[in-house]
C-alpha cells in the first residue's frame, strides 16, 4: 500500500503538477516500491503533452517553392513529429546570408551550396548532413540577342551574381575570364533587369527563372557550370559541429525525417504542388511549380541515387577545383565536415573499436591465465566468444594454414555459409576467387604485428555471387603453443562501389543524351591532338549549333525538346565513324572530333550529312513533328590551330558565319 499512499502525498503538493523526474525523485524519497516508481514514470511518459516535441528550425535558401518540397512533405505526413520534432521553416529574405543564420545560432539547420566547403576551410564549424541535389542548380542566364554569343562575351559586362556562388565564379575563371574582368553588381533577383539590358547575365536556379522567361516569350541561353567541368553538389542540408555534439539524437532524427520527406515528395510531385499552393505560397503558379519539380528530378536523379547520398571522393574533387582556382589552400581535411549517419554517439559502434576490443580482450585473457583459476578463465573465454559472435560486422579468425577457426554470425549473413560449414576449411577453398588466392596467401608476410592493415578484394558467397569487401586485418602473435592468427573484419562494399563508379560516370556524361560532356571531351581532345602531332595526322573539329531549337521548347515543352535532342544525337552518330568523338558542348550545341580524317572531301561529306540528317522532321512523343536545323563550323588541325582553344575559336567563328548567312549549312574556318 506504500505506493498508493505516496500517490496521496503527491496530490497534496501545492502549485503546478511536478514533472515525471520530480515525481520519481519524490517517490524514491518516500521509499516507494520500484514497481510503483516505474509505473508512475511510464504513466507520465504516456501522458506527455504534444509540447514535449523538440522544437528546431530550418533556414531555407529562398522563399517557399518546390525547391523545399521534401521538408513540406516531412511536416505534412508527420515524419518530423514521429521523430519527436516540431520543425519551423524559415524562408529567406532578399539579401540574407542564410548560412550565417545557422552559424550564428538563429537557426538549427540550413540549406547551403558547396560553398560550405570554403567556409569550413575558413574555420566555420559547418557540417554537411546530406546532399539533396546531385548536380548544382546554379547557372548564368543571358539573353540570346546577339550581344552574348558565348560565355566569354560576359567579360567586362555587368553581372548579377548572388552570394555563396563560388562555383559560378570558378566556372568563369575556368573559362579564362580573369577576376578583374568581372563586373559583379548587387543581385535584384528580378529578371526584368536582364530583359531590359541593365545586366548582361544573372545567376539563377535552372529550376526557376528560365520558366519566367519562357512564359514571357524571351529568347534566352543558359550557361551551366557542369558543361565546363565544374559539377558541384547543390542544396546541401547542414548544421554546426556544436549542434551535432550537443544533440546527436536530434540531428540524426531530423536528417532521417527530412530525407524521408524528400523521397515522398519526389514520388508525389503533383501532391506537393497542391500542398505548396494551399499551405505555403501562391507566389508561383501550379505550372511553374511543375516545371521546378521536373527540373529537380534531373538534378537529383532519385532513380539512380538515394536522396542524401554524398561521396567523400566527390567532395575531394570539389576541393581540388577550388584549389586549382586559387580559392582555397591544399591542406583541407574533410574530417568532421561530412556527417556520418552510422555514428551512433558511442565509439562502441565504430568497426575498428570491435577489433580493438577483441585484441584487448585477448590480452586480458592471457594475463588472467597467470593469475586466475581455470574456471574463471573459461568464463572469460565464453564472454569473448559471445563478443566475437555478436559483433555488428563480419569477423573471421584464420590460422597460419589459412583455415577458418572463428566465424561470426554477421560473417554468415554476409557470405552465406554457416559456422559448421566453414570451420577447419581453408578460405581458398570456398570464398577466395582464383585471381585473389596469391594475395591472400601472402597475408601473413604482408602484415606486421600490432598494426591493422586494410585492403579491398573480391570474395565469393555461398550462392556463387561475387562481392567486393573492405577487409581490416591484424595478426595476433603466437602464444602458449598456439600459432599466429589473423583476425579479419569484412564489410560488403559492392553497392557502394557501384554507386561511386556510376557517379564518376555521370560526372563525365551528359545525363540527357548519354554522350560525353564538355569536361570529358576536352580531355579527349587534348590527348587526340598530341597523338596527331606524333603521327603528323589531320584532325577536324565540328561545332554543331541547332537552329530553331528554342522554338520547339516554347511550342511543345521541355519534354519534347529533350526528345528532339536525343534523336539529334542518334542522327549525328549515324553520320560519323565509331572512332570519332561526339559530345554535348552546351544546351543545344554539340562538338564532333574527326580523327585521321584524311582529305577535305571526307570532312565536307560528313558535315553535309550532319546538316541534312538533323534537318529532317523529328517525330515527337506527343504527336506531330519538330523541324530544326544545324549550323556547322569546321576547323582543322594543324591548319587553323595547334591547341584546343585555337581550334574551338575557329570552329565557333565559322559556325556563326553560317548563322548570319541563313543557317542550315556548314562552313570551313578561314
Which class of the largest domain in CATH terms?
Alpha Beta
CATH topology of the largest domain: D-Maltodextrin-Binding Protein, domain 2
What summary fits the major beta sheet?
5 strands, mixed
Unreliable stretches:
1-51, 344-353
Coarse morphology: globular
CA-atom Rg in angstroms: 32 Å
The CATH superfamily of the largest domain is known as Periplasmic binding protein-like II
Mean pLDDT over the full residue set: 82
Per DSSP E runs of 2 or more residues, the count of β-strands stands at 22
CA-CA gap between termini: 105 Å
Structural class, from secondary structure content?
Answer: alpha+beta
Number of helices: 28
What's the domain count?
5
Report the helical percentage: 40-55%
The fraction of residues assigned to DSSP E strands is: 15-25%
CATH architecture of the largest domain: 3-Layer(aba) Sandwich
Question: What's the arrangement of secondary structure elements?
Answer:
Layout: H1 2-11, H2 20-29, H3 34-46, E1 54-59, H4 69-76, H5 79-82, E2 85-90, H6 98-103, E3 109-112, H7 116-121, E4 126-133, E5 138-143, E6 158-160, H8 166-174, E7 183-185, H9 191-195, E8 201-205, H10 209-216, E9 220-223, E10 234-240, H11 241-246, H12 248-267, H13 269-280, H14 286-300, H15 312-324, H16 351-371, H17 374-389, E11 394-399, E12 404-407, H18 409-415, H19 419-422, H20 427-430, H21 437-441, H22 443-446, E13 453-460, E14 466-476, E15 485-492, H23 494-507, H24 518-535, E16 539-547, H25 549-556, H26 558-575, E17 581-584, E18 589-594, H27 600-615, E19 618-619, E20 625-626, E21 629-637, H28 644-660, E22 665-668
Parallel strand pairs: 1-2, 1-3, 6-7, 6-8, 21-22
Antiparallel strand pairs: 3-10, 4-10, 5-8, 5-9, 11-12, 11-15, 13-14, 14-15, 16-18, 16-21, 17-18, 19-20
Helix pairs in contact: 2-3, 4-12, 13-14, 16-17, 25-26, 26-27
Amino acid at each position: 500500500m506504500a505506493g498508493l499512499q505516496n500517490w496521496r502525498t503527491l496530490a497534496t503538493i501545492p502549485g503546478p503538477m511536478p514533472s515525471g523526474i520530480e515525481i520519481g525523485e519524490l517517490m524514491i524519497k518516500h521509499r516507494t516500491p520500484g514497481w510503483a516508481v516505474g509505473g508512475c514514470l511510464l504513466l507520465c511518459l504516456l501522458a506527455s503533452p504534444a509540447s514535449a516535441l523538440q522544437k528546431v528550425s530550418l533556414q531555407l535558401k529562398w522563399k517557399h517553392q518546390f525547391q523545399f518540397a521534401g521538408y513540406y512533405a516531412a511536416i505534412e505526413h508527420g515524419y518530423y513529429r514521429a521523430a519527436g520534432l516540431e520543425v519551423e521553416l524559415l524562408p529567406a529574405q532578399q539579401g540574407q546570408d542564410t548560412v550565417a543564420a545557422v552559424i550564428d545560432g538563429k537557426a538549427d539547420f540550413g540549406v547551403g551550396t558547396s560553398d560550405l566547403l570554403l567556409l569550413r576551410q575558413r574555420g566555420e564549424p559547418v557540417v554537411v548532413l546530406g546532399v539533396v541535389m546531385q548536380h548544382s542548380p546554379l547557372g548564368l542566364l543571358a539573353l540570346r540577342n546577339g550581344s552574348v554569343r558565348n560565355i566569354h562575351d560576359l567579360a567586362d559586362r555587368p553581372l548579377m551574381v548572388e552570394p555563396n556562388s563560388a562555383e559560378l565564379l570558378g566556372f568563369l575563371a575556368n573559362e579564362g575570364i580573369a577576376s578583374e574582368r568581372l563586373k559583379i553588381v548587387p543581385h535584384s533577383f528580378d529578371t526584368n533587369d536582364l530583359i531590359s539590358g541593365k545586366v548582361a547575365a544573372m545567376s539563377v536556379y535552372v529550376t526557376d527563372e528560365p520558366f519566367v522567361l519562357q512564359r514571357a516569350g524571351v529568347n534566352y541561353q543558359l550557361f551551366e557550370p557542369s558543361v565546363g567541368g565544374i559539377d558541384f553538389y547543390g542544396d546541401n542540408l547542414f548544421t554546426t559541429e556544436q549542434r551535432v555534439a550537443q544533440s546527436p539524437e536530434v540531428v540524426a532524427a531530423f536528417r532521417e525525417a527530412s530525407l524521408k520527406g524528400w523521397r515522398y515528395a519526389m514520388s508525389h510531385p503533383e501532391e506537393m504542388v497542391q500542398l505548396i499552393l494551399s499551405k505555403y505560397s501562391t507566389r508561383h503558379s501550379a505550372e511553374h511549380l511543375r516545371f521546378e519539380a521536373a527540373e529537380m528530378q534531373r538534378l537529383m536523379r532519385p532513380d539512380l541515387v538515394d536522396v542524401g547520398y554524398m561521396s567523400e571522393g566527390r567532395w575531394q574533387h570539389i576541393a581540388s577545383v577550388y584549389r586549382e582556382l586559387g580559392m582555397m589552400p591544399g591542406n583541407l581535411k574533410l574530417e568532421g565536415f561530412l556527417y556520418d549517419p552510422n555514428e551512433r554517439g558511442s565509439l562502441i559502434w565504430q568497426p575498428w573499436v570491435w577489433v580493438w576490443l577483441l585484441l584487448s580482450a585477448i590480452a586480458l585473457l592471457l594475463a588472467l591465465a597467470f593469475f586466475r583459476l581455470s574456471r574463471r578463465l573459461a568464463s572469460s573465454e565464453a564472454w569473448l566468444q559471445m563478443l566475437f559472435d555478436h559483433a555488428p560486422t563480419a569477423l573471421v579468425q584464420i590460422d597460419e594454414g589459412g583455415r577458418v577457426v572463428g566465424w561470426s554470425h554477421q560473417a554468415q549473413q554476409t557470405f552465406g555459409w554457416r559456422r559448421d560449414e566453414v570451420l577447419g576449411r581453408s578460405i581458398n577453398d570456398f570464398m577466395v576467387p582464383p585471381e585473389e588466392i596469391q594475395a591472400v596467401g601472402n597475408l601473413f608476410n604482408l602484415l606486421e604485428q600490432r598494426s591493422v592493415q586494410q585492403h579491398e578484394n573480391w570474395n565469393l558467397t555461398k550462392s556463387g555471387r561475387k562481392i567486393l569487401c573492405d577487409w581490416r586485418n591484424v595478426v595476433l602473435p603466437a602464444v602458449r603453443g598456439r600459432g599466429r592468427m589473423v583476425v579479419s573484419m569484412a564489410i560488403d562494399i559492392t553497392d557502394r562501389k557501384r554507386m561511386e563508379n556510376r557517379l564518376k560516370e555521370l560526372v563525365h556524361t551528359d545525363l540527357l543524351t548519354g554522350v560525353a560532356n564538355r569536361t570529358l571531351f576536352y580531355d579527349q581532345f587534348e590527348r587526340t591532338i598530341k597523338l596527331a602531332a606524333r603521327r603528323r595526322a589531320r584532325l577536324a573539329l565540328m561545332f554543331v549549333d541547332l537552329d530553331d531549337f528554342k522554338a520547339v521548347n516554347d511550342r511543345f515543352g521541355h519534354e519534347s525538346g529533350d526528345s528532339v535532342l536525343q534523336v539529334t544525337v542518334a542522327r549525328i552518330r549515324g553520320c560519323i565513324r565509331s572512332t570519332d568523338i561526339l559530345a554535348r558542348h552546351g544546351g543545344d550545341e554539340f562538338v564532333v572530333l574527326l580523327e585521321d580524317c584524311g582529305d577535305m572531301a571526307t570532312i565536307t561529306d560528313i558535315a553535309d550529312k550532319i546538316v541534312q540528317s538533323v534537318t529532317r522532321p523529328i517525330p515527337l512523343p506527343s504527336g506531330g513533328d519538330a523541324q530544326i536545323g544545324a549550323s556547322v563550323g569546321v576547323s582543322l588541325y594543324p591548319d587553323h590551330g595547334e591547341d584546343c582553344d585555337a581550334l574551338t575559336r575557329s570552329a565557333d567563328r565559322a559556325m556563326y558565319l553560317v548563322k548570319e548567312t541563313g543557317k542550315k549549312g556548314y562552313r570551313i574556318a578561314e
